[in-house]
Amino acid sequence: MKQYLKIDEWKVIEDQFHPAYNEITESIFSLGNGRMGQRGSFEETYTGKTLQGNYVAGVYYPDKTRVGWWKNGYPEYFAKVLNAANWNGLSIQIGGEEVDLHTSEIHSFYRELNMKEGHILRTCEITLRNGKRLAIESIRLNSMADDESGVISYTITPINFTEDIVVKAFIDGDIKNKDSNYDEKFWDEVKVGSNFVWSKTKKTGFEVITAQQIEIQSNGQKIEAKASSTTREKYSELAYTLAAKQGEKLTIIKYAVNISSENHPTASFEKIASDYLSRISAKGFAKMLAEQAEAWAAKWSINDIIISGDASAQQGIRFNIFQMNQTYTGEDDRLNIGPKGFTGEKYGGSTYWDTEAYCIPFYLGTAPAKVSKNLLIYRWKQLDRAIENAGKLGFNKGAALYPMVTMNGEECHNEWEITFEEIHRNGAIAYAIMDYVNYTDDRKHLVEYGWEVLVGIARFWAQRVNWSEDKQKYVMLGVTGPNEYENNVNNNWYTNYIATWCLKYTLEVYAEIQQNYPTEAAAKIAKTAFNSSEIDQFKHIIANMYLPSDENKGIYLQQDGFLDKVIAPVETIAAERPINQKWSWDRILRSCYIKQADVLQGMYFFEDDFSLGDLERNYNFYEPITVHESSLSPCVHSILAAKLGKEDKSYEFYTRAARLDLDDYNNDTEDGCHITSMAGTWMSIIKGFGGMRLKGHSLHFNPFLPKQWTEFSFKINFRANQLNIAVKQTGVEITNLAGPELTVFVHGEARTLYGK
């Protein structure tokens, strides 16, 4: 754990430079607007440890899979989230010496991520190796108002010299990914101009034009400055020689755009980029900064969580909400939520099961229903590819296995154990359909989109199980559960349970759509060729699924044979954590230690199926042996601990979830932030401390106030209503901010909220 960043309720602050942690800080200070994003790297040259990263939504490269070639059905490629052209580059030379914080003497340093207004601010005072002393102030944003653009204001103030400064504003498309095989590069040049680089990805053929326009100011007044242009392969530069006077401010404003072939015709690329630059530069930096603040104010007015009495917790939840809103806006149903968002390159693909299991609840509560609906439609559109994927395992008749990792519906993960054994992700997709429909009451979604997806998933489960003559039960062999520290196991409890639920839910939906939408249902059922023999098959599996358990301990088992392991609490290996960085894989697989508890994940999803006693016994057994080296783990434990009345443990797990990246709990934030788990942090407060549940058509709240807080409040969108829930030492106040009259339940008591 690293606690070098300062606590502030609206900002993340580094008040002195920590070069050893620079890549961590770059991840945390990342910016995005749903369409493009970048790590929080310096604008000027930095020769120290850094990962310069710029990313354009939807652009990827199908890197050839280099392992596992002998396993039939193995994915052909691993989709890389591509590092795109560096648009924020500046080279500053004074007296022939490059401005470089790595080689300079640093007298003062400050940088902040302003989450309230959506920008990065940095100030520093340095002395170059040639003795020139200067102050730097930079402000950078990725515009929410104009979501294909960004802007930088970079100010230099000479402290001890009057001398010409050479400024080179450049766009560098000659970049590579950190994890490139053999330093391979993934972009080819299409065209380079005096102010743009136009590139095209190898194989996939995505095209992006990145262009810039420069404005120079002296003491806040715009001045005319002549630029010389230099171009080479994948590189464009505008160079200025500027007269700098001691004590006077010299400002370079850099407007930049990323125009993608996903959104615009390439035939008009240059004109579109030019017009876009003209429009945003006409606004000016001050207006773009003000519009950014306005856009973020609108977001915070809907989804802020306010905590009193605990600045660390407040900073943590706002950081998580901030990153979620930067990553996905819901405006484009072709896009999804990658595990690192715009903060890094680790992991491939644009979506995992994290989206359905963790992110959709966040967007259901904080955004218009269409945002969550678009995430579900994303999967519906890729159903054909999911059917093809199941075919690789020998399944047929419309059985669908959704990919673990994908960009376009094709599986593109590069580990067999994850690709074809971690099949529980099918269940999360079905669960998300149920969650969306119940929360929004958009029941027509079931016949329009849901049925086809559900029946494909159900058919997969029905073919994936087999009848055990020994057990006289259906079993599921050779799977990997959410706890990836156990591979190729038999009868993972969570997988078996959610498979059974999927079959039940599919039959429920089958009956519902026929009753409520007979004409549309008949067409959809005919299209999927669903028949009565399948109904009988599903019912037989539901009635006879094997679920491993231990009667003596009164617990469900992770999988067959789990109790053959030596069970010892994680405290006994405290010096050896994180085990994924210190142990061999073999040792991890043989140990009892759990990355995230599969059984508790299932009990979180389906809590009404279990008594409090069931939950407590399983929680008390699994929590002490869980190392939480999955970012998805702490939030589930926080919610379940809250339900069990373990308030201190609930708060402890919330803190770990909320500050996972800010404090680098898992020693891996330098690779990027854990974006999809951040939605789980929101759930820790809403479902954990707030105790919110949907039962039938009514919201229920069973809140408690952590002893570290004096109060907290949050807003919830629920169908036509927007509610504000305030949990105080004096009680619980719920206000109906918008919408018709509504009845909710607080600790079991009905409250009528009158409409506004």
Question: Would you write up a description of this structure?
Answer:
The protein has 756 residues and is of the alpha+beta class. It is built from 20 helices and 32 strands.
Total count of helical runs of at least 4 residues: 20
Q: Which structural class best describes the helix and strand composition?
A: alpha+beta
Q: Strand share of the residues?
A: 25-35%
Strand segment count:
32
Describe the sheet with the most strands: 10 strands, antiparallel
Distance between the termini: 47 Å
Give the second-level CATH assignment, the architecture of the largest domain: Alpha/alpha barrel
Count of discrete domains: 2
Mean pLDDT metric: 95
Radius of gyration: 27 Å
Helix content: 25-40%
The geometry reads as globular
Offer a quick outline of the entry.
With 756 residues, the chain is α+β, with helices and mostly antiparallel strands. It is built from 20 helices and 32 strands.
SSE blueprint and pairings:
Blueprint: E1 11-14, H1 22-28, E2 31-32, E3 36-38, E4 54-56, E5 60-64, E6 77-81, E7 86-94, E8 97-98, E9 105-114, E10 119-127, E11 133-142, E12 149-158, E13 163-172, E14 187-193, E15 196-201, E16 207-218, E17 221-223, E18 228-232, E19 235-244, E20 250-260, H2 269-283, H3 285-303, E21 305-308, H4 311-327, H5 354-366, H6 369-381, H7 383-391, H8 416-419, H9 425-440, H10 445-464, E22 466-468, E23 473-475, H11 493-516, H12 518-528, H13 532-544, E24 549-550, E25 555-556, H14 579-582, H15 585-590, H16 598-605, H17 612-622, H18 633-643, H19 647-658, H20 675-689, E26 693-695, E27 698-701, E28 711-718, E29 721-728, E30 731-738, E31 742-746, E32 749-753
Parallel strand pairs: 27-31
Antiparallel strand pairs: 1-9, 2-3, 3-4, 5-6, 7-8, 7-13, 9-10, 10-11, 11-12, 12-20, 13-19, 14-15, 15-16, 16-17, 16-20, 18-19, 21-28, 22-23, 24-25, 26-27, 28-29, 29-30, 31-32
Helix pairs in contact: 4-20, 5-6, 5-9, 5-20, 6-9, 6-10, 7-10, 9-10, 9-11, 10-11, 10-12, 11-12, 11-13, 11-16, 18-19, 18-20, 19-20
